[in-house]
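Run: sequence + inosinic acid -> complex structure.
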Amino acid sequence: MITILDKTFVPFIDRAKIEERIGELASQISTDYKDRCPVFIVVLNGAFLFATELVKKVPLSCEITFVKLSSYTQTQSTGRVREIIGLEETISGRDVIIIEDIVDTGLTMNQLLEQIAKLNPASVEIATLLHKPDALLKPIDMRYIGFEIANRFVVGYGLDYDGLGRNLDALYVIS
Ligand code: IMP
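>> structure
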């Protein structure tokens, strides 16, 4: 059990299991994008660890870029969604793979998809480490999902609680 600020968390998914699953996603991506040169758009801050493990295991010619966009403060979705910050690469005509830590209500991802669509990519797919199907407000087509989880708050492996816990090398769930 670990404590972060006022909350306690218990072990949820261990590092070996996470890395095994990321390996599976990476081989799927490597097969699907064979002979193509995708652009990975990593959504900071949460996706940094997932993205690191994933792209290391994808032996394709590819570009990797980082953006910021968030709709969350503490444990509740605020519904406020910000614009993409930091996208400098030319996306027009490219095969884009968005790398996200978690798709919860889907508000953030929907906003991101809308903004990326305006840049005329050839294709867009999503790779998310976690997905909470019960929290999703409207359907989103997600091709690469690490784990579908219950609608409970998790930390670790890049995900934070009020800025803390991102460096934990496994996933923990609120107890
Ligand atoms: P959405 O817009 O509700 O889908 O929320 C997406 C963002 O909320 C993610 O990129 C995370 O930053 C954050 N988030 C959602 N659920 C959790 C959680 O269980 N733990 C930590 N962050 C979360």
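>> summary
DSSP finds three helices and eleven strands in the chain. The first strand starts at residue 2 and ends at 4.
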